[in-house]
Design brief:
Radius of gyration: 15 Å
Shape: globular
Number of helices: 7
CATH architecture: Orthogonal Bundle
Largest sheet: 2 strands, antiparallel
Length: 167
């Protein structure tokens, strides 16, 4: 993906999130945050500092529309911070091509589903527990996080099949 395509995907994912997907909720427990796909699908060559800056900017834009006082920004920075560690943890035996993007068509379903699930978990757990302002609703918050992790991960994979067929 070149720079122009990344800029376009930034705006597309944010517009999808704040206009359409914002209202997707299953039983008021599972929520979809497709905008994290922008951070998940950036090339492996993106450095950690730039990744965290992009995470902060992405989360801040969502916070402006959701009126959530930095919750999404904090969760996105954490996701961006953890991304190099997770990609190193699940690295295939041949390694990564530095210019490659972690797309389903490039990496295969098993790797992509593992990656998406782990990264979504690392975004959603802080998001929901910061939103709850503590652990007094621990089980309910955990249920919301797990349901949203599953929902978001499935939508991200579905979007890969629909929009990124040829890589």
């Amino acid at each position: 993906m070149n720079n122009l395509a990344q800029v376009i995907s930034f705006f597309v994912y944010l517009i999808l999130q704040v206009i359409f997907i914002r209202h997707w909720a299953l039983f008021d427990i599972a929520f979809c945050f497709i905008y994290i796909s922008f951070l998940l699908l950036l090339p492996f060559s993106i450095g950690p500092l730039l990744l965290m800056i992009l995470g902060f900017m992405t989360g801040l834009v969502v916070d402006l529309f959701y009126d959530t006082l930095g919750i999404h920004a904090a969760s996105c920075v954490f996701l961006a911070y953890m991304r190099p560690l997770i990609t190193n943890l699940i690295k295939p035996s041949g390694g990564y091509e530095i210019t490659m993007s972690p797309l389903l068509s490039n990496m295969g379903l098993r790797w992509f589903l593992t990656y998406t699930s782990l990264m979504t978990t690392l975004h959603h757990l802080p998001l929901f527990f910061i939103e709850a302002w503590g652990t007094h609703f621990f089980l309910f918050t955990l249920l919301k996080a797990i349901a949203s992790i599953i929902f978001t991960s499935l939508v991200v994979v579905l979007f890969q099949y629909i929009f990124y067929k040829n890589g």
